[in-house]
Automatic annotation (TrEMBL):
The keyword Signal applies. It comes from the Bacteria. This is ABC transporter substrate-binding protein. Pfam families: SBP_bac_1.
């Protein structure tokens, strides 16, 4: 309860006004939906008239924000019962914790009352990651693990062959050979942008496979351990020496833009990237990419597990209308609508098993469909971590304090990438932040 109090006090400082939730619009009821401004979400926003036409009297108002801003605003509103939003976009980091806190609506009764919604069609690991006590509190929009995209044409030109299961050491060697600054092509693109859901996501998978932990089983902080230091030095050096220009401010979107414009030979990130890579409307490298499993060092696999999903805050005024919208955006028919309207590469991946049975999607996604499913299937702590840890999560630490802790550590990592701080200095400061969190858990053991 003390830790929850700290969280509530912190997020209360972030709350800003967002009038309109629960209000009546000119044509009827208006739902206010907080959403992350990723490409797949933009497609959903553009299809809004389809929903409004099928549901007279329900109007949609989207509040679309960059990832870091969206997380802060949604957390603040939900934790303080601000009531700004009728539907919020969250992930498998927030869903179980917020359900345990009583902040979210249990979706099981809504799913059961919706013909054809088919809860069992969700990929089990994705479904379970959004559940608390076997009850779902968020509905997945898309799911992902992480893998490595690489330019097959550049590999062929350099006489290189991507292994079926590459190591990070091999990837560093490839990046050095493929780095072509004269022609504006980086050897690899890796996130360096501060944010616990930005640079910390790929970096933590590297740390895991190097044998590192954020905390040991007794909640001792381990950010200055030899394993954590080795991972940090490797990541920082790789992106500084062979990564993209301006790496310390590059996140998922920035790396995606660079890779799709032919400005990077490799890109390690979320499997959801593949749809954009293969979309002729946004990419200059369509058909030129191969997709390899997340690189490893000491573990069997290292890919993460993540899903952007929709949830209803407990204080939402019209939960039935909110669920109607959620069922539309996370249902089977929506998948087909996106495919038929925008092309099958833009379908939300990694969530419904039935999506992978659609012939048109299988054909469009043949380069990355199976690697995506394999990555999600392999994403578990037992495979991705060398040592046991006391927290849930692969690319995040599944505790409330990680939103602040992870952001602080990511700022240190970004400073090291930018050359403003040494790796040792960054980890020393990060260790102090982590020790404070670890001690609070030791005190309640």
């Amino acid at each position: 309860m003390r830790r929850l109090g700290y969280l509530l006090a912190a997020v209360a400082l972030l709350v800003t006004g967002c009038a309109g939730a629960g209000a009546a619009g000119g044509g009827g009821r208006t739902l206010v939906i907080a959403i992350v401004s990723n490409p797949q979400m933009k497609d959903a926003i553009s299809l809004r008239p389809e929903f409004e036409k099928a549901n007279p009297g329900i109007n949609l108002k989207f509040v679309s924000l960059p990832e870091n801003q969206a997380r802060a605003k949604i957390t603040a509103s939900t934790a303080t019962e601000g009531g700004e939003f009728d539907v919020v976009m969250i992930s498998n980091y927030e869903a179980p914790q917020w359900a345990a806190n009583g902040w979210l609506e249990n979706l099981e009764p809504h799913m059961a009352a919706t013909p054809g919604y088919d809860r069992q069609d969700f990929i089990p690991s994705i479904r379970d990651s959004l559940s608390y006590k076997d009850q779902m509190y968020a509905a997945p929009f898309y799911g992902e693990s992480s893998f490595l995209a690489y330019r097959k044409d550049l590999f062929d030109k350099a006489g290189l062959t991507m292994p079926a299961k590459p190591t990070w050491r091999q990837i560093a060697e490839f990046a050095a050979k493929l780095d072509d600054r004269a022609n504006g092509v980086a050897g690899i693109c890796l996130r360096g942008k501060p944010g616990w859901g930005e640079s910390l996501a790929p970096f933590t998978t590297v740390a895991n496979t190097f044998g590192a932990q954020w905390f040991d089983q007794n909640w001792n902080a381990k950010l200055t351990s030899p394993e954590f230091k080795a991972a940090a030095e490797f990541y920082v050096n790789l992106v500084r020496e062979h990564g993209e220009v301006g790496a310390s401010s590059a996140g998922f979107s920035e790396c995606g833009n660079r890779y799709n414009q032919g400005q990077a030979a490799m890109w390690y990130d979320a499997t959801v990237m593949a749809g954009t890579n293969e979309d002729p409307a946004s990419s200059k490298v369509v058909g030129k990419s191969g997709y390899a499993p997340a690189p490893v060092e000491k573990t069997q696999s290292s890919g993460w597990l993540y899903t952007w999903s929709l949830a209803i805050p407990k204080v939402a005024k019209d939960k039935d209308a909110a669920w109607k919208f959620m069922a539309w955006m996370t249902g089977k028919d929506f998948v087909r609508k996106v495919g038929e309207t925008y092309g099958w590469n833009r379908v939300p991946p990694g969530v419904r098993k039935s999506t992978y049975d659609i012939p048109a999607y299988r054909d469009a996604a043949k380069a990355y469909a199976q690697p995506t499913l394999d990555g999600i299937a392999d994403a578990s702590q037992q495979k991705a971590m060398l040592n046991p840890v006391p927290y849930p999560g692969i690319q995040f630490v599944g505790i409330p304090e990680f939103q602040d802790l992870g952001t602080r550590v990511s700022q240190q990592l970004s400073a090291a990438i930018a050359g403003r701080e040494s790796v040792d200095g960054a980890l020393k400061q990060s260790q102090q932040y982590a020790e404070t969190v670890g001690k609070s858990y030791q005190e309640v053991r």
